[in-house]
Amino acid sequence: MFERILEDIRTIKERDPACKGSLEVLIAYPGFHAVQFWRFSHWCWIQGWFTFARWVSHVARFLTGIEIHPGARIGRRVFIDHGMGTVIGETAEVGDDCTIYQGVTLGGTSLGRGEKRHPTLEEGVIVGAGAKVLGGWTVGRNARIGSNAVCLKPIAAETTVVGVPGHVAGEKRKAQEAEHSRFSAYGVVRGAEDPVTRAFVQVKRELDAQRSTINALRLELEKLRGADASRIPPLEDPKEQSFLDSAL
């Protein structure tokens, strides 16, 4: 038990640059306290003391703001950073070296008793603040889930997921291997490109090209009619164009 506690302290000191020492972890890190409470409540759960185990987890929630069901399985060197509002459900499994930030929910989407309702995080997964991982499926090793993403289906190993609903961000292969092999706070991976944003940018380019073509055709038509082309207003509205540019 003491070996695991020392291991948790070392993990927090490695991953949190704001940490000033072991004493600070012992008295001022709710994520550390929540994991220690979970260990005791999980032991009670295994003994069949279900109500008492739930009471222990309730006390932990009151003191730390982090709710971990005593039936959940938590690996070694798991760091819950800040943690306020984090919820980990009964059949959830969190692998070794995972990092979970505040407001995260590892939740279930079914009501069946005795079935796997909550997600499994394999080793090294990072879940950013406010992310919701829902369902009894697996998040692959070293995956990164961006802040406020909503994930409803399995996630492959060493991928970055962003958005609502969650979708895999584009990453260059070499950069992907380098970034996912080391810790990244809040699941932010440099060079990751949101495919939805990329699609909007492509649509905007096509609209700009269409506007240019239509304006050129209108000018040619007016010239053929003998009108003064300089007095013909452009097709696009400058205000709308400015708003679209700022949004993208």
Which blocks of ≥5 consecutive residues have pLDDT under 50? none
Which topology of the largest domain does CATH recognise? UDP N-Acetylglucosamine Acyltransferase, domain 1
Strand element count: 15
Give the structural class: alpha/beta
- At the first level of CATH, the class of the largest domain is Mainly Beta
Number of domains: 2
* Helical fraction: 40-55%
What shape does the CA trace take?
A: elongated
Strand percentage: 5-15%
Radius of gyration, in angstroms, nearest whole number? 25 Å
Give the SSE order as H and E letters: HHHHEEEEEEEEEEEEEEEHHH
- Residue-averaged pLDDT: 85
Largest sheet: 6 strands, mixed
Which architecture of the largest domain per CATH? 3 Solenoid
Could you give the distance between the termini? 52 Å
Strand order of the largest sheet: 3-6-9-12-14-15
CATH homologous superfamily of the largest domain?
A: Hexapeptide repeat proteins
Number of helices: 7
Characterization of the model:
The protein is α/β, with parallel strands linked by helices. It folds into two domains: 191 residues, Hexapeptide repeat proteins (UDP N-Acetylglucosamine Acyltransferase, domain 1, 3 Solenoid); 52 residues, no CATH class. The chain is 41% helix and 13% strand. The chain has seven helices and 15 strands. It has a six-stranded mixed β-sheet with strand order 3-6-9-12-14-15. It has a five-stranded parallel β-sheet with strand order 1-4-7-10-13. Helix 3 packs antiparallel against helix 4. The chain is elongated and about 90 Å long. The chain starts with a helix and ends with a helix.
